[in-house]
Design goal:
- By secondary structure, the protein is an all-alpha fold.
- It has one helix and no strands.
- It has one helix at residues 7-31.
């Protein structure tokens, strides 16, 4: 036998290297610490100086128990409308000539 590798042994070696690469990548990913959550900061606040407010009470609050409404009223008006008759409409005439539909393609 010669010392040359066969196609089968080359394929097995290639697949073994491929699997080893995946194993190393998985171990590297598994060994990393978990990503830290983003730090949440409170929005900036500003302080405004206090302003004095004076409230004066006027009338004590009252409760409405009933409301008087007037009955609806009816007004009659006479309106005169004059309508002028319009002439019978005719078909509109076109001032622009009608062009035949043509294609933009040429032979």
């Amino acid at each position: 036998m010669s010392g040359r590798p066969t196609w089968g042994s080359a394929a097995v070696t290639g697949l073994a290297g491929f699997a080893t690469g995946w194993l190393v990548a998985a171990l590297l990913v598994a060994g990393r610490p978990a990503p830290q959550p983003a730090e949440v900061t409170a929005p900036p606040t500003s302080t405004v100086p206090a302003v004095p407010v004076t409230v004066t009470a006027s009338v004590p609050p009252a409760t409405v128990t009933s409301v008087e409404t007037s009955p609806p009223s009816t007004t009659t008006s006479v309106v005169e409308v004059t309508v002028t008759p319009t002439p019978a409409s005719t078909a509109p005439t076109s001032t622009t000539p009608v062009l035949p539909l043509t294609s933009g393609w040429r032979d």
